Amino acid sequence: MTAHPDEPMDDIDLAILGALRHTLTLADPVPPSLVDDIEFSLSLAAMNAEIALLSDDLVGVRAPTAESADSVTFTSSTMTLMVVIGRDDGQLRIDAWVSGGGITVELIQGADRMPAVSDVNGRVSWFPVQPGLARFLISPITSGGRPVITPAIEL
């Protein structure tokens, strides 16, 4: 162990720090979504996007265990996005409808961005999609408008 704080660390110092890291990792692990949440917060501030809220059609409904939904709806002051999560040949498929045609919607999973443009009925889809956290970024609907981003959902 180093005798003076100005001396370089030795193998004993490194072993102590390694044991401390291991103990802290076991006692208080980093939440799995922390990095994604930080990246989301930073990118949101950088682009000044409006956040779409998850529609609360099921207000007052409570289940004793986690439930999975096959569709969710997000709303903001400028648009609505309905997302349907399905399977096609055993793989995840996302079908969505946005308020209008010709709108670019990006499916974002970590660093992966998959843009798609809605058809005249507002429909957009992605296939195949990997399971995991995902959010959607909708390009501004009007010139000079702000983009809209959804909270993350688990696919």
Give a written overview of the molecule.
The chain is α+β, with helices and mostly antiparallel strands and 155 residues long. It has two domains: 1-30; 35-154, no CATH class. 20% of the residues lie in helices and 35% in strands. The chain has two helices and eleven strands; from the N terminus they run ααβββββββββββ. The strands form two sheets. Strands 1, 6, 7, 9, 10 and 11 form a six-stranded mixed sheet that branches. The protein has a five-stranded antiparallel sheet with strand order 2-3-4-5-8, with no helix packed on it.
Which features does this protein show?
11 strands; five-stranded antiparallel β-sheet; elongated; 155 residues; alpha+beta
Percent of sequence in beta strands: 35-45%
Q: Tally of extended strands?
A: 11
In the residues, how many domains can be counted? 2
Instruction: Characterize the overall form.
Output: elongated
Helix content: 10-25%
**Alpha-carbon distance between the two ends:** 49 Å
Main sheet specs: 6 strands, mixed
Poorly predicted runs of 5 or more residues: 58-63
Short synopsis of the structure:
The protein is built from two helices and eleven strands.
Topology:
Blueprint: H1 11-27, H2 34-47, E1 50-51, E2 53-54, E3 71-75, E4 80-88, E5 91-98, E6 104-109, E7 112-117, E8 123-129, E9 133-138, E10 148-149, E11 153-154
Parallel strand pairs: 1-10
Antiparallel strand pairs: 2-3, 3-4, 4-5, 5-8, 6-7, 6-9, 9-10, 9-11
